[in-house]
Design goal:
Layout: H1 3-13, H2 21-35, E1 40-43, E2 50-53
Antiparallel strand pairs: 1-2
Amino acid sequence: MGWQAEQMWRSCLRKKFYRSKQIAEQTVKRIKEERGVTLYVYECPICGYYHLTKKPRKEKG
C-alpha cells in the first residue's frame, strides 16, 4: 500500500461509520436536535460505509 493510500485508510478508520445511509441520516437529525450542529452524510470511497462531515456536498457543474 502506498503512502497516500495508507493515510486515506487511517483517516477512514478513525471515523465512526454507519452501515446504512438511513442510520447515518437519523444520527444527523438527532445531533441537530440535541446540539444544534448541522452535519452531512457521505458514502466513503474507501470503506463503502457512511461517515458524517460538517462540510456540505459540493454541487457538480
